[in-house]
Predict the structure.
Amino acid sequence: MSALINYRAEHRLALIGLVHAPVNALGQALRRELLQALERANADPAVDAIIIHGEGLPFSAGADIHEFGTPRAVAAPHLRALLLRLQQLNKPVIAALSGVALGGGLELALACGYRIGEPTACFGLPEIKLGLIPGAGGTQRLPRLIGVQAALDMMISGQMINARHALELGLLDGLSKSAQSLLHEACAFAHELLERDAPAFPEPRWRFPGSGLPDDFFSQYRLAQQSRWQGQLAPQSVVKALEAACTLPLTDGLALEAELFKALEASSQSAALRHVFFAERNVGKLPGISADTPIRLIRKVAIIGAGTMGGGIAMCFANAGIPVALLELKAQALEHGLMQIRSHYQISVQRGKLTTAQMEQRMELLHGTLDYAEIGDADLVIEAVFESLPIKQQVFRTLDEVCKPGAILASNTSTLDIDAIASVTRRPGDVIGLHFFSPASVMRLLEVVRGRDTGADTLATMLAIAKRLGKVAVVSGVCFGFIGNRMLEPYSREAHRLLLEGASVAQIDRVLTDLGMAMGVLAMHDLAGIDVSYLIRESRRDVIGHDRSYCRIADVLFEQGRYGQKTARGFYLYEGRQRREDGELIPLAERIAHELGIVRRVISNEEVHDRCLFMLINEGIQLLDEGIAQRSSDIDLVWINGYGFAAWRGGPLHYAESLGLAHILERIRHYRDALGAYGQMWLQPAPLLERLVAAGHTRIETLTAKDI
């Protein structure tokens, strides 16, 4: 019939095969031709039932996201209108579901009278991950099929469910024996329906989805999720739409759903999440790396150091089924490291995330050793020792001697110069930085640091490994702190300085968490360890020593042995993980400010926001200008996945674009001038930011960085 639909009629059935590779995205062209096929089948007197299926492809992964926000998204036939027309047909329509039925693809299946799945198929409504709700009837049809609680769980989580679970919930009417037999069994099911004169669209299992729910179900659900949602629009709209499914007729509920979807599609939150979606798909596109770049085979990995970070990295590889040798210099440290890994796995078993057998399988992949000679056959060696350049250089000298030719040598440094580390080896092309974030087995971000001499195949291999580990790998050039920690420095510096000028710990962190940050910057320092950040500052006194106020309050806390959560005292007081304000912090800040001649004043929330966030953004723009980061969206991914920046804000540089680059430049200049010597010292606009604004640009792009 067309390039997008394979239509054939046989034995009283119309078989409508979707052939829009690769995943049958429901763009306008496919919607139009699907409607034509349905009308053709409905008008054919020889056709008594209709089967929609993926022809050698997944059933449908949903809408074409590239159409969102464009005229094509609403061009006729809109998916909502197509599904309403489908439900007006007087012939049974069966969805034969292969591969995935996600988003609009699942909504298409829900609008059919019957659904048959193959055993490995997966189903989901992931719209919430794009700041949206199902917009083609999903919020109204799904609760009528599987009940409110199950529908709410699927929509709020955005996670997929497997075929067996879908059958148990009542989403499916049956499972085929195999993927290969799906269409044959769907045809047999259709004939069975015709033989018993089954209705085209049977009554839903939950005709009144709200029956049996407590009167305050939705209000209590909102209350329980309030702090977690932090002002996000999409989850609140999901609840509102499901509430409508319980109180309104289907037609009215569909109309409300359409209104909610339209508002969300136009929102800044959805635009931000769509930005993140595409950022993750562009992050691996790098100069000098192509599909032809050779990938080295990684069959065995060695980790140097069995501490918290080394153990976490080892778990990442064991979780991916890759054998790991864990090397320590002392038997006690090695034993402790292996015990900690087992303890972490046991917690996962207790929480039902792993079985005991799975835990043992992973532990069997881990091998401890005290001898460098035992890691000589490793394909990848990751050093995870103390953050000291001389110590790391000594480790790499040893690795250069014992490791086989072609082995990749990686450093898990968070700040140090990869080129300086590579320089002590005879194989700088094999050296790379892999900055895992703690806890390494949980955090998605992996900063991959490309040194001056790092080979293209070395980089390509590490990007492939990162994907295998389930990491979001962002490539950085060499500089202090790479992308994330370099931007953390001015963000953190301003927070510490604001304490001396008159802000409180709670005020600073509240402004940041109200923005959507997972944690305030001062609470973050308590979690990471005030002693850790102090040692980093000590290594950089030649760069920061000219400012006596630089993080001075944190230095005093370190001198007092207040290291944060580990000592139960830092910027906050702790009882377990519960924190509360410390009344001693304000007098301490007052004393330090007096010693330094800093006049304290009332600090507005706006100033806290602007100085912390705009200096963070300013540093990110400078990283682009220097070529340390490839693109602004890479920086956004680092801060979303490594530092808890709200994805629904799009990351710091997308957030900057939403506020306006000219506004940010004006505010930085304002504070630079208002803060006297301190402002002149630290609050200088990035030259690229000045050039962008002067040229009238509203977007931050690498092309702009090179051309302006």
In short: The longest helix spans residues 605-626. The mean pLDDT is 94. The chain has three domains: 5-265, 301-476, 484-707.
